[in-house]
Structure formats: C-alpha cells, structure tokens
Amino acid sequence: MTTTTDRSQKLPLPPGNFGLPLLGETIEFLRDPDFMEKRQKQHGSIFKTRIFGADSIVIIGAEANRFILSNNQYFAISWPQSTKVLLGPNSLSLQEGSQHQSRRKLLSHAFQPKALAGYLPGMEKVTQEYLQKWESISNLTWYPELRNYTYDIASTLLIGTESGSQTSLSKLFKDWCDGLFTIPIPLPWTKFGRALRCRKELLAEIEKIVLRRQKQQEPGKDALGLMLQARDEEGNGFSLPELKDQVLLLLFAGHETLNSALGTFCLSLAQNPEVREKLRAEIRQVVGNDSLTMEHLKQMNYLEMVIKEVLRIVPPVGGGFRKVVKSCEFNGYSIPEGWGVLYQIARTHEDESVYSQPEKFDPERFSPERNEDKKPFSYLPFGGGMRECLGKAFAQLVMKVFAVYLVRDYNWELVPEQNLELVTIPTPHPKDNLKVSFHRL
Ligand code: HEM
User: Fold this and answer.
1) 281 CA distance to ligand 1 centroid (A)?
2) What ranges do the domains of the chain cover?
3) pLDDT for 297-343, tens place per residue?
C-alpha cells in the first residue's frame, strides 16, 4: 500500500528560492508589500521560500485555502518565533487540540448574538464621543485616532475598562505590536527587544485589572467575566498566567485589525463619494435619526456589501501560518513534514478568475445578482476552519456601528499630497496615517 507520505516524498518540491543562508527571504517578506504578488507572477500559485527561519511553502487560491484550512491531520497552527514569544504560551492562538477547543468554546460565549446585542449601547456611546472629538479637531490624522477608538471599544466591552486608550496599557501596545513580526533578537534597541519589555509591562498592568475584577462580587458577562467564572471538570479555574495571556490576545486581536479595517473604510469612501452617498441614503431610509438597533442592521444590505468590499480589498490579516505535521501533496507537489505553510488571504482576494477588476472598489460585486464570492474559500478575511476568527461577529458589528454614525452625520475629504501607499506590517495602513478634513454635515 502506498501512503500519502510515501507518494508525496517522490514528488518534486514547488519552484522558488530560499534566499540567504539563515535569514532566507525574511527581510523581503517584511519590507516589500508586493512580496507575494511578485513571487506568484514568477513561480505560479505554489512556491517555496524561507521565512522566519522555516523552509516554507506558500499556496494561493480558494482550493489551496480549503486544502490548508480543512485538513487538520496535515496542518497545525504555527507562528513566527517573535509572535509566539510576544503572545505568550497560554494564548488561545497558540493552544492546540482539546485545550484549544475548550477555551474557544468558552470565549465564544462573549461573541454570541445575545452578547453582541448587549454591546450595542456601549459601542454607540464610544463612537459618538469620538465623532464629536474629531469634529472639534477638524484637521485629522485619522489612523492613530482610529487606533484609540478601537482600543477603547475592545477594552470597554471585553474587559470592562473604560477610556482604556488613555491608560499606559494602550501606549505599550503600539511598541509591542511593532515587534510581532520581526527577527527575534532580544537586544534593548531592536524592535523585538522593545516589544519584549512592553510585554512584561503589559502583563503587569493586565494583572492589576484581573485582580481588581476577581475581588468584585459580580464577575460580569464580558469576556473577562466569563473567564473568571469558568471551571473545568475538576472545578479548577484559569490560572493567573493564562488569564493574562488571554486578555492580552483579546485586546490585541480586538483592536489592531479593526483599526486597519476602519482606516480602509474611511479611505475607500473618500475616494468613492458615490458609494458614500448611496450608503448615506440607505442609512437615512432605514435608521433615520433614531438610535441604531440590531433590527436596523439586518435591513441594510448595501452596508453589508460595503463592509465586505472593505475587507476584501485590503484584508487586515494578509494570510496565516501553519506547520506541516504529516507530509502530503498539493497539485503534484510535495509538502514535506516539518515545513511551514502559508495560506494567502490578500492574494486570494485579488484572483481575477473570482473577482472582476479586483483592484476596483466595487461593493456591488457582492450583490445577489453578481455574488462574486460564491466559490467556497474565495472570500476569507476572517480565515476559516477551526481557527476562524473568534471575534468575527464583534468586528462586523463595530464596523457597522461606526459606518452608520459616521456616514449619516459627517463628511471628510483627503488632504492633498499625502502618501497613501500601504505599509502592511503589522496591519495595512497608509504611510502618512490618513490625513483628512472632517466636518459635520
Ligand atoms: C476586521 C477585523 C478582524 C479581522 C480581519 C480578523 C482576522 C482574523 C483571522 C484571519 C484569523 C485567523 C488567523 C489564522 O488562520 O491563523 C483570526 C483569528 C482570531 N481572531 Fe480575529 N480578526 C478581526 C477582529 C477580531 C476581533 C475584534 C477579535 C476579538 C475581540 C478577534 C479575535 C481573534 C482570535 C482570538 C483569533 C484566534 C482564533 C483561534 O486561534 O482559535 N479578531 N482573526
């Protein structure tokens, strides 16, 4: 009998280059926003490279995504060493097997429909406060402001700490994030070294929040409250080190990606005023001057399409890392055990066989008539399979609440002669941080 392993070992490796002896192509991967596109043009939709110290294979396209994300017998989660160390050993995104499943199940309660409806008033309050602040500033560099906004949303709703962006925690996050995808040299002046120091300080601050909450009589229904109440079969709760790593992950995952998504929303609507007008008409018709409800949101089909297009055209997470735990094959190439594998969200979203004029911002591509993302795994801003984004529904809700109040009541124009080129690491954002003039309608 020939096993998959025997057969795959006889197949060729995909084309591609490993780059420099130790570093491989890591520097190019980190610096060049077109790293994947250039190699795809040169080698095709499957190629080998070496990044973050691992011989790796990149596979692009809907079929590849399905193969990687639904075959857990071949692939396990893996992150670059820098990300692993900075997230910490007890983080859900590093946990595996039954521990991952049970933690995920528990945390998912904080993102179920009933919980989400409960978050709506809190989201509205934070959103209104920021919109009024931006109106008073008028000439806005938006990206850092959006970072504070998404941070406040995450810290208020997930761990019950209001105005979190004004605390030392939020300031530490920026340097911590800058170290996530780096070469892990722990020296004081490297990005990684700085981020390591920030991790220590972040955990100390988070510990204070956790201990304060542990003393409260009512643990609360937010994500931290759920973790504080959780008990396993033997009646044991989360250890303090695990609580701290999980809070760190939720705060990070809960604001950094949203920051990028909202930035793309603001930029795309400034560049496409006809989309903004159409969206405004829908909001005025469905919501009018009332407060937003979950029922309103269900009725806004155009809003749904615009948000989908924002996450297609610049997905905040460009792809994901896995390691091969059992050799296998894909399209006639060997995928050897021990190697890294990357699935590609950004390149899949630019596939011309799926999306017409993929470079164009065109929300109507998701209308029922065109339905361009009908092929499974061709649209995956939140990943897929058992590691699909836990905060997907929360993120979509924040984006919609933000969009409704912003577009209904305000206008904004891009300041001329700014650099809108995208920097992609840690999440995509324009080089000059998006400068706009901002005013009430
Ligand atoms: C637009 C915003 C967001 C995008 C585009 C996004 C995208 C993603 C993607 C692509 C993954 C899977 C990575 C992989 O396959 O390796 C992921 C995982 C995850 N996301 Fe999000 N995310 C967003 C917002 C959020 C929010 C708001 C939260 C929490 C409040 C969150 C929490 C998580 C967690 C905990 C995981 C790890 C899940 C696991 O390993 O089981 N994300 N996200």
Assistant:
1) 31
2) 4-440
3) 999 999 999 999 999 999 999 999 999 999 999 999 999 999 999 99
